[in-house]
Structures are given as structure tokens and as C-alpha cells.
Specification:
Elements: E1 3-6, E2 27-32, H1 35-39, H2 45-64, E3 68-72, H3 83-93, E4 98-102, H4 107-120, E5 124-127, H5 136-143, H6 151-162, H7 203-215, H8 232-250, H9 270-275, H10 280-292, H11 298-322, H12 350-362, H13 367-381, H14 385-395, H15 401-412, H16 429-435, H17 456-467, H18 469-472, H19 479-487, H20 490-509
Parallel strand pairs: 1-2, 1-4, 2-3, 4-5
Helix pairs in contact: 2-7, 3-4, 5-11, 6-11, 8-10, 8-11, 10-11, 11-15, 12-13, 13-17, 14-15, 17-20
Bound molecules: flavin-adenine dinucleotide (FAD) and iron/sulfur cluster.
Iron/sulfur cluster (SF4) binds next to helix 12, helix 16 and helix 17.
Length: about 525
């Protein structure tokens, strides 16, 4: 009896469900670097390097723990280039009579897995991914029959389920479930930001970096100064560093942006959580312990825990509950192609050049940059959700479809018509000015709405509001916005729309990214 256990690139956890109860003596773990997964979208070089290096280190860790691992490298001459092709070869090579696999985080890959039993003539057991707090069934039980989805209510269920920051009477710590209103401070330049740990590449990682440079040289992004953790031990070092140095001020400056500061007080842990090197619940328990020990304030601990057991679980729930159809939604019928400078950062809008520039360097941007800069701009110009989905999936090293797609299509583009959020996160330049130091260094004037020096976000914002009036005026939360629009005289409205039309025409005339 030989059981084949394929372990995918984002399943790098020692306690993966497919390994539980499996006897190492009768099992072969199959790990595969396949071309199809590295190129079906043209992932950032740093993302490919991180995942392959983490996979190779994880294979060694599994071997040290007593497992037999069959590892197929990208440049192995017989590599079939796809999961299905490699599983076929492995079934034969090891005379496997059974396959056990943990479900994938993407519909596309789950569809491949669903075909294996028929293709290979051996039983295939697909196990649920137990690294999440809410199972698919739990999310469905919460979601089914609900007219309105709101993350906040789902989050409260997760707090009760885990007991995180909940007292013995089931009440939230401090009396409130959510301290977001305390978490909107802009950051000053003289703040002392913690420096992220840097891990010098070892021989395994250096091999991977050379492979990626040679094979994916035409993919976006840079490999320079690669210092991402690629083992669980080093990911835990980053986690410990976050708990001590950044978490205490995480809440206060969660929404802030500063020129040249990619991380501020953010955790930079999503790479590790999503690939499986870190466990989300253990991380949240460690955050709670910091609060209980009096080392971090409640707004920081609650704010961080909400991101993980609230937002992260909620977007995953939506992805699997709605199914593949979600990825086709386009509420506004948006069609504009993304400009080519999304791949170079070469724009005179300073906020966008900062957010895109650091994304190309690091395969990372923090949440507010993704949401209120690149995302807000894509929403306002009416960018095609397919382009936007693909860009976010390509450029961020933490991007897998289950987490990227609801954030992109739902949160930033409102392409789901309001399932994930109650209103579009559309904003003019004033928001970016309030939360960052970007505008002071920009060639545009954030205070001007029309004219050659006016911040483009301003007219684009009102144009978005006017253009989508038929879809948005009836949305209660958009009421104040339409009241402001209605208060403007026709000449002002006309000037704003014509300013936006000129900008959009210049965008349409410029080269496109896809
Ligand atoms: C358009 C858009 C696309 C995004 N795409 C991704 C993606 O592909 N992968 C990804 O992990 N996150 C994505 N996010 C969420 C968020 O931006 C990143 O999780 C975060 O920036 C990661 O950096 P960090 O670890 O420093 O996070 P922190 O700001 O320190 O937050 C802590 C953790 O909370 C979780 N988290 C916070 N917000 C979200 C959220 N909305 N959805 C899921 N998890 C969340 C992450 O695991 C993150 O590590 C996206 C957000 C937007 C607006
Ligand atoms: S002025 Fe406008 S374009 Fe320039 S940084 Fe501010 S928001 Fe961005």
C-alpha cells in the first residue's frame, strides 16, 4: 500500500490535514515545481523565488521529520509542467494505490484534483484545509439566507468561536467589539519605524534566485536584496519581531502612508500565513498574550486580530461560498484597460508611483496602499476587473486567488454589487492627503479640482459618482455623496466631468499593460 500525498506550494505546514493520521512508512509526499503554476499569470519574480525557496526548505524539514519526499524541480528534464502531469508520473513511479490531498485554495486547481480519480483509476481523498478558523460549512451556515453580508457580524462570531479577546461572560474585552475608530492616525516623518528582519539567502535560496533570474527574467519585479524568510523558523523570527516592535503601534498607524516607508507598523506576515509557514490562530493567541501582559494596547491587539479572524476568514468564506461565478462579476460594466505604468511605476502621481514602485521592488504593499491608492484609482477610472484581478495576483507575493479575488473584485472594485462591502471605497485626493505625506511631494495640487495642476483623483472621484448614478444613488450609504453632488451648480459639475474626460482620454491614448 503506497499513499501519494501531493503537497502544493501554499501548503507548507507541518500539520497539514493530508498528513494527519498518515503513516510515513507507507506514504510518499510529492512536491512539484511546475511551469503552469509559475506562468498562468506572470507572477512577480520575488513571489516565484519566495515560494520555490520555501518549498525546497519545507521538503528538507519534512525529510528531517521522517517523511519520504519526492521533489520534482522546475528544471528536471522530465518535468511534465503541470500538477496533473506530475501526479500521473508519480502514481506510476511509486505504484501508488491511493491519493490523499488537502483541498487547494483556488477553484482552478480544485477542478484539476476532482479529475484525478477518473484519470488515474485510484481513490482520491480530498481533505478540508484545517488551517482556517471557519470551515466552508460554517461560513455557509452564517451566510445562507442573509440579505446583507457584513464582515463585522461574521467577525463577532469568530471572536466567540475562538474566545479571542472575549471575557468569561462572552463579552468583548473593553466593552466594544471593534476599536477601528482609534486606528486612523496619520504618521509623522519623525516616527521611529521598526526595521524588518532580513534573512541572507542560503545555498538553496541562492540556487532558486539564479533559476528565477534565468527563467523568469521577463516577469515583473526585482530580486535585488532578497531577504524574505523561507523557513518556518525564520518566519517565526519575523513574527516575534512584529509582536515586540510593531504591534504596539499597529493600531494607531494602520491606515497611514509615508514616502519611502513600505512597512510602517504592519506585520509583513501575510507571505508566511498564506504559504503555511505560520499558523493564523497561534499568531492571534500570541497577539492576545501581548495585550494581556500589558505590552500592547487593546486597539492594536483587537485591530490586528480582526484582520486575521475577521477579514482574512471573511474573504475566504466569500470566495468558496460564491464559487467561480464570483470571478466574472462586473457590476459597473467596467472595461478600461490598466495603463502600462502599473508595471513600471512611471507616473507623475506621487502616491501611485510610491505604491507601485515599492510593489515592484518588494512584491509587497500594505493594505491602505492596495485599497486607497492603486485600488481606488482602478475603481475611479473604471478599470476592467479581469485586468485588475490579474495585476494583483501577479505582483503580490501573498496573492492566491482565494484571498486576492474578493479583495480586488469585491473590496476595491465593488464589482460584486455590494456583497462584500456596503459601498464603494471611492475617495478623492483629500483622503490620500489626510493619511499620507505623498501630496506634499507631488507635482499635482491636491486642493485643486480642475485645471492643469489639479489632483486627478478629485475630478475622477466626482466623475465616478456621476457616471454610476443609476447604480449607486439608491445605496443609502451613498446618500451624503449624492447630496453634495446635487448641491453643485451645473457649471461646476460640467467642469469636473470635462476635467475627468480629458484625463481619461490621455489614459486611453497611453500604452496598456495587457
Ligand atoms: C486590493 C487588495 C488586494 C489584496 N490582496 C491580498 C492578497 O492577495 N493576499 C493577502 O494576504 N492579502 C491581500 N490583501 C489584504 C492586505 O492588504 C494584506 O493582507 C496585507 O497588506 C499584508 O501585509 P501585512 O502582513 O503587513 O498585513 P497587516 O496590515 O500587518 O495585517 C495583518 C494580517 O491580516 C490579514 N489581512 C488584513 N486584511 C486582510 C484582507 N482584507 N484580506 C485578507 N487578509 C487580510 C493578513 O493576513 C495580514 O498579514 C489585499 C487587499 C486589497 C485592498
Ligand atoms: S496630489 Fe493627488 S496624485 Fe498627487 S499624491 Fe496627492 S492624491 Fe496622489
Amino acid at each position: 500500500m503506497t499513499t501519494l500525498v501531493p503537497v502544493l506550494g501554499d501548503q507548507l505546514s507541518v500539520d497539514l490535514s493530508s498528513l494527519k493520521g498518515t503513516d510515513p512508512a507507507h506514504c510518499i509526499i510529492l512536491m512539484m515545481e511546475v511551469a503552469e503554476e509559475t506562468t498562468y499569470v506572470r507572477h512577480h519574480k520575488r513571489k516565484v523565488a519566495y515560494i520555490l525557496a520555501a518549498m525546497r526548505h519545507h521538503a528538507d524539514a519534512l525529510r528531517r521529520a521522517g517523511w519520504r519526499v519526492d521533489y520534482v524541480k522546475l528544471d528536471d528534464p522530465d518535468n511534465a509542467g503541470s500538477f496533473t502531469g506530475e501526479v500521473a508520473r508519480a502514481v506510476e513511479r511509486h505504484a501508488a494505490d491511493r491519493i490523499v490531498v488537502t483541498e487547494a485554495g483556488e477553484h482552478r486547481v480544485n477542478a484539476m484534483i476532482a479529475a484525478w480519480e477518473t484519470l488515474f483509476g485510484v481513490p482520491v481523498e480530498v481533505r478540508t484545509d484545517t488551517r482556517f478558523i471557519a470551515s466552508h460549512a460554517e461560513f455557509a451556515a452564517w451566510a445562507d439566507g442573509r440579505k446583507q453580508f457584513r464582515m463585522e457580524y461574521f467577525y463577532r462570531e469568530m471572536r466567540r468561536k475562538t474566545g479571542l479577546l472575549v471575557d468569561t461572560k462572552g463579552k468583548p474585552e473593553g466593552g466594544e467589539w471593534n476599536y477601528d475608530k482609534e486606528n486612523r492616525k496619520p504618521a509623522a516623518r519623525d516616527l521611529l519605524m521598526p526595521k524588518l528582519p532580513h534573512f541572507a539567502p542560503d545555498a538553496i535560496t541562492r540556487d532558486v534566485l539564479a533559476l528565477v533570474a534565468a527563467r523568469f527574467g521577463d516577469h515583473v519585479g526585482s530580486l535585488d536584496d532578497f531577504g524574505i524568510a523561507v523557513t518556518r523558523e525564520d518566519a517565526l523570527v519575523t513574527q516575534a519581531h512584529f509582536l515586540t516592535h510593531a504591534l504596539p503601534r499597529f493600531g494607531d498607524f494602520q491606515d497611514a502612508m509615508l514616502t519611502g516607508e513600505p512597512y510602517l507598523y504592519h506585520a509583513h506576515l501575510s507571505f508566511y500565513l498564506n504559504a503555511g509557514l505560520l499558523d493564523p490562530l497561534a499568531l492571534c493567541r500570541a497577539v492576545e498574550a501581548e495585550y494581556r501582559a500589558g505590552r500592547v494596547p487593546l486597539n492594536a491587539a483587537e485591530g490586528f486580530i480582526r484582520q486575521i479572524i475577521g477579514w482574512r476568514e471573511y474573504v475566504r468564506g466569500i470566495y468558496f461560498w460564491t464559487g467561480p461565478e464570483y470571478g466574472t462579476r462586473n457590476f459597473f460594466g467596467a472595461k478600461r484597460r490598466l495603463p502600462a505604468w502599473y508595471w513600471t511605476g512611471e507616473t507623475d502621481m506621487h502616491c501611485l508611483s510610491q505604491a507601485i514602485g515599492q510593489t515592484l521592488d518588494l512584491a509587497y504593499a500594505h493594505h491602505i496602499q492596495r485599497l486607497m491608492v492603486t485600488g481606488n484609482f482602478a475603481l475611479l477610472i473604471g478599470a476592467d476587473p479581469d485586468d485588475v484581478d490579474r495585476w494583483y495576483l501577479e505582483v503580490y507575493a501573498d496573492a492566491y486567488e482565494w484571498v486576492e479575488q474578493p479583495n480586488t473584485r469585491g473590496m476595491i472594485l465593488f464589482a460584486d454589487g455590494g456583497l462584500l462591502g456596503s459601498k464603494p471605497y471611492a475617495a478623492s485626493g483629500a483622503y490620500i492627503n489626510r493619511m499620507s505625506d505623498y501630496c506634499g511631494q507631488c507635482r499635482y495640487d491636491v486642493k485643486q479640482r480642475v485645471g492643469p495642476d489639479a489632483c486627478p483623483f478629485n475630478a475622477l472621484y466626482w466623475d465616478f459618482v456621476a457616471r454610476n448614478e443609476d447604480k449607486l444613488r439608491s445605496n443609502q450609504r451613498m446618500g451624503p455623496v449624492y447630496r453634495n453632488w446635487d448641491r453643485m451648480d451645473a457649471a461646476t459639475q460640467g467642469e469636473l466631468r470635462s476635467q475627468a474626460a480629458t484625463f481619461l482620454a490621455s489614459l486611453d491614448a497611453a500604452p496598456k499593460g495587457y
